[in-house]
Amino acid sequence: MTGNQGIPVQGAQVVGRIALLLRLAGRNPAGTPLAEIVRDSGLTRPTVHRLLSSLAAEGILDHDPATHTWHYGPEIFVMGAVAAQRYPIEELARPSLQRLAEETGESAFLSIRRGAETVCLLREEGSFPIRSFVLHEGVRFPLGVASAGIAILAFLPGAEVEQLLVQDEAFVARWGGQHSADAIRANLARTRVTGYSVNPGLIFEGSWGMGAAIFDRANRPAWALSLTGIEPRFRPERQRVLGQLLLEEANRITRLLQKPGLPGHQA
Questions:
Q1: Mean per-residue pLDDT for 227-242?
Q2: Fold that domain 10-77 belongs to in CATH
Q3: What is the CA angle 115-198-223, rounded to 5?
Q4: Distance between CA atoms of residues 229 and 182, nearest Å
Q5: Fold of the 87-257 domain
Q6: Which of 86, 130, 222, 260 is 20 to 30 A (C-alpha) from 201?
Q7: What would the pLDDT profile of 77-106 be if each residue is shown by its tens digit?
Q8: How far apart are CA 161 and CA 141, in angstroms?
Q9: Mean pLDDT (whole number) for 137-158
């Protein structure tokens, strides 16, 4: 450790790299290839392979030799089970997801804010046979891109929103002009009026989504419920019905989270 202020500590750099690799390895339930992790991490292939192998030796990751993909290991499951006792959001949200899926026929999701992203935590499949497969557990989107992130971003303080809307070349190349800062601002303004967000096929054509924010005890948007499906299921007249259902369930969870004495109310 160095005594000079402002100089990164080597150990902290390693921790940051490991955290990044864990996020990349876990974003696809079917597993993530090494080449994809190397590409998106910006690290060298030998460095990535060495760190992944070390995590696998500790049971934190698994490597599937048949598909050559990396997956979360059993230790991640143990950690998650322990953390779930302190952060009961999944237990509180699951009944709402089930009601939304049953009443609408669409797939319902719970996402959490993590920094400048949302991460999908839970999914409940609807009965409608044609589905959108954009969202599933572990998927991350920048705030303002998917319906959950739009719903959360809309109710953050203005100065924080503007900081999060600073976009680099990589963001523009990945998400396109439909997710420019001005386009996102316009969507945020609409969301503040209705209370719920609408993603009109901006990630994949024909795949629509809607979302509503869940607030923590500090009254900050920390999670979001969302519904996804195909465009004909999200016509303007039905959006109002779906939006009201989302708001009712999001408000229900917010009230439960804000009850005195409930553990794990922070994002």
A1: 94
A2: Arc Repressor Mutant, subunit A (1.10.10)
A3: 30
A4: 25
A5: Beta-Lactamase (3.30.450)
A6: 222
A7: 777 766 655 567 888 999 999 999 999 999
A8: 16
A9: 92
Residue 33, classed as helix, strand or coil, is strand
Residue 239 scores a pLDDT above 50: yes
Can you tell me which residue has the tokens 């797939």? 107
Residue spans per domain, the chain: 10-77, 87-257
How far from 9 is each of 4, 43, 107, 148, CA to CA, in Å? 10, 18, 44, 35
Cβ neighbours of residue 203 closer than 8 Å, sequence gap 6 or more:
134, 141, 145, 146
Distances (CA, A) of 231 to 66, 103, 190, 201, 207: 37, 18, 19, 7, 6
- Secondary structure element (H or E) that encloses residue 10, with its range: helix 10-25
- By the 8 A CB rule, do 138 and 109 touch? no
Residue 7 DSSP code: S
State the burial class of residue 66 (Cβ atoms within 10 Å of its Cβ: 0-12, 13-18, 19+): exposed
Measure the CA–CA gap between 72 and 56, rounded to whole angstroms. Answer: 9
- The β-bridge relationship of strands 221-230 and 117-124 is unpaired
* Residues linked to residue 111 through DSSP beta bridges, in sequence order: 120, 224
